[in-house]
Design brief:
Structural class: mainly alpha
Number of helices: 12
Strand order of the largest sheet: 1-2
Number of domains: 2
Radius of gyration: 24 Å
Distance between the termini: 61 Å
Helix content: 55-70%
């Protein structure tokens, strides 16, 4: 006969789920499934009590759980009530930055991880059966826009070049990969914008002649995706990441810790 372990004997009887957790779980699921829309106001407390059949303290604790998770924003004052806040890639980036900061992670670690993940996204794009009518079409429009800005506004040019990378990530076909890569990209974005503003203000932003090779790399990457050359496009992206890193962080300090505040300000 099976005898229980010493550990199981000391754990005591199984505890049922706490009622506030159950209520919070039901509301959470409605938010995550999209049945409660972003910025939608939850019913007043009296209505929630009637709907869920629980006491006021239980409902207040359930709402506190959801507020801590960032899924609602409780408004105090004459208006009052709770607004739905559906999770987004931006909130994921901020949460990830908080975790990395708590672990003492420096910017160099994030940049290195991003340079490993972006080539994977490019590979996935090259494997999409509908890539020619979706991601390739978008990338070619961005490449044309970058060429049009070759001698134009530096901030607008850099924004278009950055959108090439974000589009490649967002169209890779893997929800998990695009969320993780997009979150890391958001953490690095603040540094990219700082670099653009600084070099532009001091007249050191790359000239039209210096910008052209980066556009040509983007065009080669697009052509490789079009042709379905997954391993070749990954290699091209890896090499491109190293050049980009040198331009943006060449004189910077990558030993600085990740700063969640810059992620929040960049959105």
């Amino acid at each position: 006969m099976h005898s229980p372990s010493a550990t199981s004997l000391t754990e005591g009887p199984a505890q049922p789920n706490r009622l506030p957790d159950v209520v919070a779980g039901r509301i959470r699921e409605l938010i995550l499934l999209g049945e409660l829309k972003d910025d939608e106001r939850l019913p007043p407390l009296e209505g929630l009590l009637t709907q869920f059949g629980v006491s006021a303290p239980t409902m207040r604790e359930a709402l506190r759980i959801l507020e801590t998770e960032g899924l609602i924003k409780v408004q105090r004052g004459s208006i009052g009530g709770a607004l739905v806040r559906r999770p987004t890639p931006q909130t994921a980036a901020y949460t990830l930055a908080l975790v990395l900061r708590s672990q003492g992670t420096d910017k160099g670690d994030v940049v290195e991880a991003l340079s490993l993940l972006e080539p994977l996204c490019a590979m996935q794009c090259a494997r999409l059966t509908n890539r020619k009518s979706t991601v390739v079409r978008e990338l070619r429009k961005l490449n044309a826009a970058s060429r049009a800005l070759l001698d134009g506004d530096e901030l607008a040019f850099n924004d278009t070049m950055t959108r090439f990378h974000t589009t490649l990530v967002q169209r890779c076909g893997s929800d998990t990969l695009k969320l993780l890569t997009g979150a890391l990209g958001s953490i690095c974005l603040a540094d990219v914008r700082t670099w653009v503003k600084s070099t532009s203000a001091h007249g050191h932003y790359p000239t039209a002649v210096e910008r052209l090779p980066s556009i040509e790399v983007h065009e080669r990457i697009t052509d490789l995706i079009y042709a379905g050359e997954d391993s070749e496009v990954a290699a091209e992206m890896t090499a491109h990441a190293q050049v980009t890193r040198k331009h943006i962080y060449g004189g910077g300090d990558l030993t600085e810790l990740v700063d969640p505040r810059t992620v929040r300000r960049s959105h």
